Structure formats: structure tokens, C-alpha cells
């Protein structure tokens, strides 16, 4: 296990016979310890021994706190798990990459394949991706239950790779639709699979920070695709090269998963205790093996040994409550307006003189990435619940700031700059909480037996809401105006913060088994 540990010897009072030969002049001058603490002067009287112990005790306590702080600074307990989570997060990199690859050169694709100027067909090419993602999300839960995470990851790379290659070689509308559908199918599976894998593999102490890698991967994928799309402004056929390049991370993901570990929780459920113990020992440490296995077995004895859960279990308590929370969280996330804000961000940047859509998107992508980095630090220090509430409140303030800039008579340049500030604030605060926390907290609240099904249901709701927002957004803007729609987004953000306050429990620092047993006991207690 790659853990940097610092062993410190306890500091004890110096026995009197060690000081009997010291000069009185030396004894009168306090000595400085290696960490900068002052040691009290040592007396030669035996009667002072008890008092000496009492006076040195606070110093020893301060020293212990200092040493503990030093240990935390150099805490690398997350490092053994990091490579495995990093490989899994490559799936989100693929997700972000395919978002940018499609949105950038859609005009060139439409012109070359013969449907330029037809908004319905252009919308179909984009939305067929969401249809595939919806089906992929629904199917992922059953696949994970039967095959485990590693094998599901590797099988899922097949539609991702094939879809990108078919899209690159498309010479008709039907071919590009098939390619985009296959890619959507693979992305739908991965969006469900990655949070499950990270939550089950990561040590409890670092689960939140490691969980944000999925959101960071999406941000990096979007930024990469934006940079990749720069030549498309001058080369109308560059989109084919972009799709070929987008297929390469799929090969890397399939290869990388060959060297990652399986979820130890899934291995216990299928009866492979030996491999589960080995993985826990290598990733979490020897001291965690017995406790973890005991918790796993306790949950298995309560839920049963059947690996394949049933969809009807989502109607039973406490699973129905978690499924309800997961579905509502994604409804609120989507109707808080992230996709609408991203759509209008390029127009807002144009108002301040940034005419390049790619450059505007790059600003947005970098802001999103910065927020995700902050979330990786705050997730395990502030907690999921507090972070989500703060994120939605920040999003609400940002939306109302833009509404103020639009509705009130301000100097034009000041109004535009205020809109830019509100847009970047919104994206930053979304990336801190609403983006990464939503996908992370649902598998943490879910039971071991129904985690795959609950995640499938929740992300299926996500894709439906994603489609509806994209379908209705422009019509709502045309009817009510941008300010009214943004005010609606701000109101939904406030509602989301209220929902998180009343319905979510904190999961920071608690193992998945502790959370599950707590929820089960609460339900039994509520039933009496």
C-alpha cells in the first residue's frame, strides 16, 4: 500500500537523573524543541516532579496536535485507489469529448450530409444521443449486478468505439444517426457506472474527493474537444478526424480496466471473499480488512445473497425513498438551467466583444474545471449536503444577478459585464456542488443490493429532463424572455437548496454500510 506515514515517538518528561550534571545557568534558559515549542526549565528538586509532569502535559498535547497536522499534510492514503478511479473517470472524459465533438461542427456535418437548414433533422442528430443514453442508463443496473463493474466497463467500450468510427465514416443521415445512438448508449451506461465504481472502491475518508474526478474528467473532455475543434473553422471535413480521435479513449479505457480492481463489495456479494480481502488490503490498508468484511457480510445477511435485484424493490422502503430523492435531485439539477445557461453563454460573451464561440466555450469550460477542482477539496471537508445547499444558493444568486442586469436600466457595458459575472458565477457554483454531488450522493444513500437499479432510474430521469429542457428552452425564451426564464432557473435553485436541506443526510466520513444500516434502522424505527 502506497501510504506515506510518519512515526513519532511520544515525548515524555526527562528523568531527574539526566539533569543532575547540567549547569544551573543552562537550566535557567528555556530550550527550544525541534518543532519550535519551548520546554520549561528543569528543576533539581524531587518535589517538583509532579508539577513538572503537569506543566509539560500541555506542551505534549500541542506537540501531538502539530504532529497530527503534519500527518494530514502528507496524507497519501488516497494514492493506492487513485489509478483505478482515474481509469474509470476516463469514461467521463469520453462523455465530455463527445459533447464538444458534436456541438461544434454540426453545421459542417449537416452541409456535407445534406440536411443543412433543416432544424428538425439537426435536432434529431443531437437528440438521438440522448435517446441512446436513456436506454444505456436503464440497462446499466442489470449489467453491473450480473457482470460487475470491470467487465461492464470493458463491454461498454464496444458501442463507444463503434459509434465514433461509424460517425467518422458516415455518408448519410442514417449512418450519423446510428453512430450517435451507439455513442449515446455507451455514455448512458458509463454515467451510471462510474459513480457506482468509485463509491464502492474508494476508501471512506477519500470517497468524496475521488468522486469528483468523474466531473473533472467531463470538464477536461469538453476542453479537449473545444481545442480539437479549432481547425474545423477552416476545414469543413475536419469533423471526421474529430470522431476518429474521439474513438481512441475508448481503446485506452478497455485496456486500462484490465489493470484495475473489481469492486470488493460486488465480489463479496458473489462469494469471492478472498479477492475482496486482497483488494481491501491493497487499497485501504491491513487495518481495514476485518472491519470491512464484517460490514459487508452484515449487509449481505440482511439483504440476501441474490446478486440480481428486482426493479419492484424500488417501490419498497427504504429503497423507494432513495429512488425518490435520486429522481428529484436530477429533475431539480436539470430544471435549474445548466444547459440553458451554457447555450446562452456564447451570446452573452458576444455582447462584450468575444465573437468566437469556441473562445467563449473555453472560458466556460475552464470555469467549470476550476469549480470541480475546488469541489475535490471541499467534498470531504465540508460534506456533500452543505456543499449542495451552498451550490444551489450560489446558482440562485447568480441567476438573479443576471435578471437584474437585464431588467434594470444600467449602463450597457456595466450590464454586459454583470451578465458575464453572473454566468461564470453560476457555472462555478454548479461545478462545486450541484454537478458532482448529485451523482455521488445517490450511490452513497443506496443499499448494496439496489444501488445499480436506483442509479439507473435516477440517470434515466436525468436524460429525460435533459431532453425536455433542450426541447422547451428556446420556446420559453421566445414567449417569456430571457430574464423571466432565468428568474425561473433561480427559483428552482432555491427550491433545490430547500429540498437538500430537508431530505438529504450527510454521508461524509461514513462507510456505505454504515449509511445503509442507519437508513434501514430509521425506517424500522419509523414503522413501530
UniProtKB/TrEMBL annotation:
The chain crosses the membrane at residues 120-141, 177-198, 210-232, 238-257, 322-346, 352-375, 387-408, 420-442, 454-473, 479-504. It comes from Gossypium tomentosum. The keyword Cell cycle does not apply. One of its GO terms (molecular function) is hexose transmembrane transporter activity. SUPFAM superfamilies: MFS general substrate transporter (SSF103473). Keywords: Membrane, Transmembrane, Transmembrane helix, Transport. It is a multi-pass membrane protein. One of its GO terms (cellular component) is membrane. This is Major facilitator superfamily (MFS) profile domain-containing protein. InterPro entries: GLUT (IPR045263), MFS_dom (IPR020846), MFS_sugar_transport-like (IPR005828), MFS_trans_sf (IPR036259), Sugar/inositol_transpt (IPR003663), Sugar_transporter_CS (IPR005829).
